[in-house]
Amino acid sequence: MDKRIDGFSKLSKEEKIDWITRTHFKNSSAAASQLSSYWNSDPSLQTKHDEFIENTLTNFYMPLGVAPNFLINESLFTLPMVIEESSVVAAAGNAAKFWLNKGGFKTVVIDTLKVGQVHFMYKGNPKLLYAFFEKNKKTLLHATSELTQKMELRGGGIVSLDLVSKTTALHNYYQLNVRFKTADAMGANFINSCLESLATTFENLAAKETFFMEKEASIEIVMSILSNYVPECLVKASVSCSLDEIEHQEGLSGKKFAEKIVQAVAIASCETFRAVTHNKGIMNGVDALIIATGNDFRAIEAGVHAYAARNGQYTSLSKASIIDDQFTMELILPLALGTVGGLTKLHPMVGWSMELLGNPDAKKLMEIVAVAGLAQNFAALRSLVTSGIQKGHMKMHLFNILNQLGAKSVQKEAALNYFKKNTVSVKAVSDFLHSNET
């Protein structure tokens, strides 16, 4: 069967499903039924979901769990977390409980600057270009005034505009580098609109200058776009306590436990293979909260990992130390988040999650997200340096294995009791179910 199609986006939802299931599935009716089984029973709510993206066929559910007992700057929070990976929510909750009576988490927003760039090519005299830019800088900024007016009333707007030469990296390549503050919005649409306005004005002004009229000396705009690398939009989260406050951890004294945590972070700081997995653990907590609050986890991931490699080697995002018998862990993350715009006012569960958090502004949300990352990092290292990562992970994974193997309710209950004291693996669970068939 020919799987090519023209005009797919113009088909109705029902027509799209009919073509998809007939073309790609052996049992078209079963495939169609599976899609419709995930529709919301409220037609208006389903329509809202359908309109989030193009060519929507159904919903793809992810579990939303909560992790309570997070003491952040003397206030208690329960964190919403959307993630499919077993043990992440439990680990976050365990970390929160560990630090609850040790002062909790401390946070501070370092800055909230974001960057956008107009990328262009210019083969002429650099001195003439810089002179032209300085002469017209105020005009360029004024051209964005209609776009920035409301943002400025909220404390945001354009912070700086600079002409940057990148010709050592790429022949004839320059950029207008613009720094923004976007208040409680993530600001992508605002930034991109400002950049496009700057690019148009820049090009129009250049067209009136005689030295730009020669083909070799003309300005050629390549593109205008924000950057998801935000090394000046930073938040810091930390925990600290005396060694005497740390309880014995599975046979380790509080001091030895802290020393092993410090060693584990030091390894992630110098060994890239370990650093990637170390930081992935941090992002387990970050992404789960980012998704729950309707933010762009892909942009956050890209920016965070670029930040981890900012000095030329990919390294740990967190730090740990023991100074004068005081154990400290801290995490600095670049987080460009929004609490208005995008899905924040459209997705019902985003609204629910935001209310659970006390409807934070963008800065407070940055702090909460950073705490989720630090908690997850601490929880992972706690497991690694004591019992090993698999013990807790596989216990939480037990339900998934039981469901995959088609266990009945009675078998699940028996398995949960049995594996409290026995090692979990797919084979072990399978053998247990075979020996407990009813």
Question: Could you characterize what this model shows?
Answer:
The chain has a 4-stranded antiparallel β-sheet. A 4-stranded antiparallel β-sheet has the order 5-6-4-7. The chain is built from 16 helices and 10 strands. The radius of gyration is 27 Å and the shape is globular. The protein is of the alpha+beta class and about 450 residues long. It has helices at about 15-25, 30-35, 45-50, 90-100, 125-140, 145-155, 190-205, 210-215, 255-270, 270-290, 295-310, 350-355, 360-385, 390-405, 410-420, 425-435, and strands spanning about 65-70, 75-80, 105-110, 115-120, 155-165, 175-180, 220-225, 235-240, 320-325, 325-335. It folds into 4 domains: about 10-50, no CATH class; about 65-110 and about 230-385, 3-hydroxy-3-methylglutaryl-coenzyme A Reductase, Chain A, domain 2 (Alpha-Beta Complex), CATH 3.90.770.10; about 115-225, Hydroxymethylglutaryl-CoA reductase, class I/II, NAD/NADP-binding domain (Alpha-Beta Plaits), CATH 3.30.70; about 395-435, no CATH class.
Mind sketching the topology for me?
Elements: H1 13-24, H2 28-36, H3 43-50, E1 64-72, E2 75-82, H4 88-100, E3 106-109, E4 114-122, H5 126-142, H6 145-153, E5 157-165, E6 173-181, H7 188-207, H8 210-213, E7 219-226, E8 234-242, H9 254-270, H10 272-292, H11 297-308, E9 318-323, E10 326-334, H12 348-356, H13 362-384, H14 389-404, H15 409-418, H16 426-435
